[in-house]
Design brief:
Low-confidence stretches: 2-23
Shape: globular
Number of domains: 2
Helix content: under 10%
CATH architecture of the largest domain: 5 Propeller
CATH class of the largest domain: Mainly Beta
Largest sheet: 8 strands, mixed
Number of strands: 33
Strand content: 35-45%
Amino acid sequence: MKKFGLALGLVCSFAALTAVAAKDKPKPAGDWRPRIHFYAGPAWNNDPNGPVYLNGQYNLFYQTNPYGDEWGHMSWGHAVSTDLVHWNKLPVAILEAYGVSIFSGSTVEDTGNTSGFCGDAGSSAAACLVAVYTGNSNVSSGGVRQNQNLAFSRDGGVTWTQYAKNPVLDLALKDFRDPKVFWHEPSKSWVMVVALSDIHTIQIYRSPDLKHWKFASKFGPSGATGGVWECPDLMQLDVRDEKGNRTGSRWVLNVNLNPGGVAGGSGDQYFVGQFDGTRFVEDHPNSGKHWTDWGKDFYASTSFSNVPANENRLWIAWMDNWQYSGATPTLPGRGEMTLARRLFLRQQESQDNGEPLTLVQEPVLPRSEITVSAGPFTVEDANTKFGGKEPGDSVYVLRATIEPGAAEEVGIRLRRSAFKPDEVAKEETVIGIDRLRGQVFVDRKRSGLVSFSPDFPVRTVAPLKHPNARAIPIEVVVDRNSVEVFAEDGETVLTNLIFPSDTSQGLSFYATGISAGGESARFSNLGVVPLQ
């Protein structure tokens, strides 16, 4: 991609961002290099592209500028992993050339050699990948032009050859991008979803061979339309009941937009429905906006293709926001990915028939099962047992079931510049439950370095899906420069970057606003475990 996604034009936005970044780059006040998230310094990195599982390892392609830490010269970087946590960066896969930037797209394994790219003598079909991506170029007659192109690899994604007859789909438009392609077995065809970004429409195409595409249908506008639509994904997910039993499946169309996100700037929404190989039909088209993540820093999400049948669907996103991505401190380099997440849909027993199923996200973590202490603990007991200094060089996962009782607000203060719970901290990130408003929140207003953008020091909030629940489960994944919060068993998620000082490693628990005689807030099933 990309993009600051404004319909007024890409070039002006890019130039403005680059000017901000070059004018005054923040000086590091800490070691913010992520330990359990993928990043590829010293380059610029944004959207994940075409993640695919092949021959025992996960391949991640992503937008990168190989020549610097600011947006430009978009090419596809490449990294591989066997566990979705430890990544090995490989050479650039597809490089910008001849005035054509390599914008976002997807990658598939063409096991049936439908494309004809994978069957030459001496090649291995078991290692053959085809990338479908947007080529972005400036043509003398009409300015920016975006169309869909192919490249193929016969060695598992290490080296690539671009198709000699590119582009394979061209509408002569400047806002036509981000193809997501998958094989639809019932109709024996490849399916592409691709965005007509400026008119909030997703086009669906079909092909027998990845080279020749025919229009099938379109979707939209619907849901949130405050910015351009980008990075669509169409995937079939398991449906489970509240006990975890599989009860069926449903299709999810995921659409990113910028600006217009729920927390400001970049955002990500989803629609639940049915897909017959030609048309996606939303189950509840008038049910409002449905956000995948309520934080500031979750964008351009895309699912892994070719994942084994016994695995849940997996996806990953860019952990940043176009409001300030060009002004964030260098790590070195700019841009990183979220943790990979497992996906499914949950059917609530009390769910209104007018509401869609709930998207659930579970983080893929580098650990065995967390050992928790059942409790329950008062705030004072939790601070005595788990508070003080953060574990694992401030890289850890915290799990708890929060029982607000009569408290107005209850939660966790982390990456604190103070180590005692009753001390005022100059720096801290606060994660909590606002019982009166029925919200879960992440407050990063005093999280460390925040001055590089007025859009950064904010409190992001999400409405609880079960605001009357007596107990609210929460899981917080903390890295050197981020927090990912999975509340209500993964139904409510907030992802946010932070840039604290190295010495801010305090951890404490708190509750406020308890009236005399009211029930105290408590924490149960509490565990804090360092991540290696």
